[in-house]
Amino acid sequence: MSNKIYPIGIQNFEKIRKDGYFYIDKTALIYQMVKTGSYYFLSRPRRFGKSLLISTLEAYFQGRKELFAGLSIEKLEKDWIKYPILHLDLNIEKYDAPESLDNILEKSLTAWEKLYGAEPSERSFSLRFAGIIERACLQTGQRVVILVDEYDKPMLQAIGNEELQKQFRNTLKAFYGVLKTMDGCIKFALLTGVTKFGKVSVFSDLNNLDDISMRNQYIEICGVSEQEIHSNLENEIHEFAAARGVTYDKLCAELRENYDGYHFTHNSIGIYNPFSLLNAFKYKEFNSYWFETGTPTYLVKLLKKHHYDLEQMAHEETDAQVLNSIDSESTNPIPVIYQSGYLTIKGYDERFGMYRLGFPNREVEEGFIRFLLPFYTNINKVEAPFAIQKFVREVESGDYDSFFRRLQSFFADTTYEVIREQELHYENVLFIVFKLIGFYTQVEYNTNNGRIDLVLKTDKFIYIMEFKLKGTAEEALQQINDKRYALPFEMDERKLFKIGINFSEKTRNIEKWVVE
Length: 516
Prior knowledge:
The chain is built from 21 helices and 15 strands. It is α/β, with parallel strands linked by helices. Strands 2-3-4-1-5 form a five-stranded parallel sheet, sandwiched between helices. A five-stranded mixed sheet has the order 11-12-13-14-15. Helix 21 (about 475-480) links the parallel strand 13 (about 460-470) and strand 14 (about 495-505). The model has no long low-confidence stretch (mean pLDDT about 90).
């Protein structure tokens, strides 16, 4: 039996090393980072190991060689010098008022001033920060290390509140701008966060930051690679497979399907979500560990606000400039969704510099689509899983009438606000429903100019459906026959249903379905 203790939710490097927790050695990359540059920025989704990276750097710059015994950096570093460190963690507050950011900056600055002294003429946050850096450097004889964890938390929490976001941006812009002004006194700086706000952002004065978020050589600095799993958890994979009663290869495939698939640049290896992966190894079962620790409510609000076509999400195309920065006034919800970890890079067109995006893995895809359901239909969060279960059972048993009656209930009470975007609303609801059913059956789904056609396959039945948003159910059925959609299934032994369905603009619901 494996005796590994998994560091779930533990972000302190000293605690991991002293208390014997499992640690995947990232220190060779950390050494490379420290020795080849001074100012870095890294964006990764939440719970991806950013805080642990900051904590590891803190221990390294404190010269705490004993914590690195047996790790790569122990052989690489010869000097182990102790530097003054200013560590700002913006993760703590709930940023819902202007003073919430002021309070946390005040707390950190006061603590640093106790160590390095204060100057009465330094009244603003940025002047005090600059003074602290200068005095720390002079008093210790070493340049200063600055580590900022979740630099963007205030900005993220203020999405949708323009005025508050503007205030946060102005405060942080001046505060982070000190990093450039005080360059001569700074040894190293790393800012981490989930997103990178662009345009008139906190970064516009900070053009000396090296953004390594999409750099291939740093892809493995947070998260876990396939090779790291096999180097560190080989015995545990066998134990996990035995506990689940599956083969080693099958378990590896399940791990890959559920938790792998993050690509932070093109032509890079896939990265596993560390939080979900370690939980799965600890409990020897698959679950939506990462998804369940945070609800992407603000992302769904963005999708709805900008009348986004959900089907696009699984094959969205964009360029690096869009991916890399979030303009708070932008109408494009995709950069925020990508940087938050709900979408990832799936392909790259080198000629045009275009990235193709998609969901990284099953945990994220199924979790996100499930989460959308109550926002787009009148089914609440508690009922949603049961509704999908019933849908699946109905198609598996050939009970299409119950299926469509249930689908009608999803459209009931559609608000007037939605009606202006009526066609898109119908398409989004159908996309969510059939995407969720597709996790348990086979679904091929296409939309085109006010009509939707799909093929749904179960063990016993094949359904060919044509939805008309403008037109009759009979016309929809006629289209299935005219276009000979059933031709590929002529030799199939399963029972085939051809179903034409139409929506009524008047009742704002499914009006009729005819079956052949």
